[in-house]
């Protein structure tokens, strides 16, 4: 699918983005401290679930099969989508993983019970448009589950984030280090029902600040 708006048009991906980034993401996003955080969030998904930027399907083993009926997802990376499909099959999850971007979701209004976004709002081209799309496709009463890394509240790590971000972004698939998380979700019109936050252990602080929780439309 053409995705010129996000700059993620697969036909235009360089070798680094096509081959190295999926491996890097697969490795970094499955580390123990990251998985610990995921366990706070992913098992709360229920009903028909949409994953924004499903990546390699690292969340799939953490879904509660008694609560989740089906998982649909979008991601611009064909390499990661292949991994996600394999992961969904391995878990016996009913799924549909599509090439696409969070800014332009190929789904009807009011479709999903849960939208799950983990470590993706850092990488989308347009955070506000992605959150507006998440609102559009959530059913009334549906939930946005989020777990994201972003702007650290402390001056030291925040300064390092600003310094490192320009070199980090091109090597890490467009990942920003300085984006707000819960603040952006609230600004997009969600009501945050639950929120927690903190630095991940055993992780450099410039990439370790995470915020997670539940929001409603
Ligand atoms: C750090 S990875 C996280 C993957 C997965 N959500 C996870 O938690 O393991 C960031 C993901 O965002 C995806 N991505 C980048 N731009 C995107 C966009 N505009 N819309 C949706 N996903 C995007 C990348 O392809 C990648 O899979």
Overview of the structural elements:
The protein starts with 14 loop residues before the first helix and ends with a strand. It has a single domain (14-216), classed as Vaccinia Virus protein VP39 (Rossmann fold, 3-Layer(aba) Sandwich), CATH 3.40.50. α3 links the parallel β2 (68-75) and β3 (95-99). A seven-stranded mixed beta sheet has the order 3-2-1-4-5-7-6. The protein is α/β, with parallel strands linked by helices and 217 residues long. It has seven helices and seven strands. The radius of gyration is 16 Å and the shape is globular. The structure holds S-adenosylmethionine. The site of S-adenosylmethionine (SAM) has 24 residues, from β2.
> Would you tell me the structural class of the helices and strands?
alpha/beta
Q: Bound compounds, please?
A: S-adenosylmethionine
Number of helices: 7
* CATH evolutionary superfamily: Vaccinia Virus protein VP39
Q: What general outline do the C-alpha atoms trace?
A: globular
CATH topology: Rossmann fold
Uncertain stretches: 1-12
Query: C-alpha Rg, in Å?
Result: 16 Å
Order of helices and strands: HHEEHEEHEHHEHE
Quickly count the domains: 1
Largest sheet: 7 strands, mixed
Helical proportion?
25-40%
Number of strand elements:
7
Features:
217 residues, alpha/beta, Rossmann fold, seven-stranded mixed beta sheet, 7 helices, binds S-adenosylmethionine
Task: Reconstruct the topology from this structure.
Elements: H1 15-28, H2 32-41, E1 47-52, E2 68-75, H3 78-91, E3 95-99, E4 112-118, H4 127-137, E5 138-149, H5 155-171, H6 182-187, E6 191-199, H7 205-208, E7 209-216
The chain binds S-adenosylmethionine.
S-adenosylmethionine binds next to strand 2.
